[in-house]
Design brief:
Helix content is 33%, strand content 16%. It has 243 residues and is an alpha/beta fold. Homodimer.
Length: 243
């Protein structure tokens, strides 16, 4: 899969490309990532990419032409299935399901806004959709784009190494991840639950599901407002009856 970032600040992505899972995925050929700067497509000797908004108002807006041309430049790469996304506060909220969907494309182009926003013609005529990572405002689209790219990368087979790695994450299924422990078995009087050290795989699986549901009830009960499996329903019913 190829992921292109359209950003005025390519240096923001240096650490993202150079560490951890993303670095390994790029090195192994599972991912191809690149940043393209819209300034390179400005037809102005000062490489201007922003201007004042029509109708007045504070701040500056990113101009449409450099963004259009930057995106058109990167989509020359061979891809039969492509999605162009703008990261902005007015978009659909990003979810794990959206990450799974975006991971099915051959190429993902993530357009990062800056200043007070972008010329609306970019959203209206260039991108396929606008995505927001939450109900808050950040300085630019670079951090949201990296969040989206990281979540999408985890959905690509082989990126996490273990075949079931991403399936065990919180939100892969509409439920939070269960508590997890590692050595030592006891620390400052706090011990790892006996079931996890029992070696009984069926009991461990049951414990993990129950603890995940317990955590979800406490922290994100909205995730359980859906059709539950028989096993989930029995656990939810039992936990709620205990209250």
């Amino acid at each position: 899969m190829r992921i292109d970032f359209i950003s005025l600040f390519p240096e923001f992505f240096d650490a993202f490309f150079s560490h951890s899972i993303i670095k390994r995925a790029i090195s192994s050929g599972l991912l191809d990532m690149a940043v393209t700067n819209p300034r390179n497509f400005s037809h102005n000797k000062h490489q201007q990419v922003d201007d004042t908004p029509y109708g007045g108002g504070t701040g500056m807006l990113m101009m449409a032409p450099p963004i259009f041309e930057a995106v058109e430049h990167v989509i020359t790469h061979k891809a039969t299935h492509r999605r162009i996304v703008f990261l902005g506060p007015a978009g659909e909220r990003f979810t794990q399901d959206k990450a799974k969907e975006l991971a099915t494309y051959d190429q993902l182009v993530l357009v990062c806004g800056h200043y007070e926003g972008i010329d609306y013609r970019v959203e209206e005529h260039l991108v396929d959709e606008t995505i927001s990572i939450g109900d808050f405002v950040v300085t630019g689209g670079e951090l949201p784009a990296m969040v989206v790219a990281d979540a999408v990368a985890r959905m690509i087979p082989g990126v996490l190494g273990a075949p079931t790695g991403s399936a065990e994450d919180s939100f892969y299924k509409p439920i939070l991840e269960c508590p997890q422990y590692t050595k030592p078995p006891e620390y400052r009087g706090w011990t790892v639950p006996d079931v996890l050290r029992s070696g009984h795989h069926a009991n461990i699986a049951t414990w993990r599901l129950e603890e995940a549901i317990k955590r979800t009830i406490q922290l994100r009960p909205d995730l359980l407002e859906r059709e539950l499996s028989n096993e989930e329903y029995k656990i939810v019913k039992r936990l709620r009856e205990k209250k």
